[in-house]
Amino acid sequence: MLANRQTRSLVWFLRYARGQTDRRNHYNTPLGGLNGGTCWCAEGTKSCRCECSPGFTDPTCSSLIDPCQSRPCLHASTCYTLASSPGSSYACACAAGYTGSRCEREINECESNPCAGFESSCVDLVAGFICACPPGFSGRNKRQSPD
Prior knowledge:
With 147 residues, this protein is mostly beta strands. The chain has one helix at residues 2-17; strands at residues 31-32, 38-41, 48-51, 56-57, 63-64, 78-81, 90-93, 98-99, 105-106, 121-125, 128-132, 137-140, 143-146.
């Protein structure tokens, strides 16, 4: 019986919010909203307000929020909505050379000291590095030879 009452309340609310009925909720009691939201209608008006469950939005809580719409992943990385909590959680697949939960940090490829053993210095690039050879030498990474 309770489920039937909640269904009728929800149907009434949706019609009421769309102006399809004049029946008022005179007691300002909460009505069931979609997707676990709760809605109230002000007595004597057609003004209704819903508090939506996390991840849902719009006047009746029927639309999922796209957490990737705000582009939270930086540096041209790809955003994915997580199936475990649609509408509220996302994960970033970072573009090459970046890391972090939002791909906010550039990876410093020189931290591993890839140019060690020679008198060259490491220059960090996005998604790579170069070893700058001393004057009179050329080569790639640790392979240097006199010019």
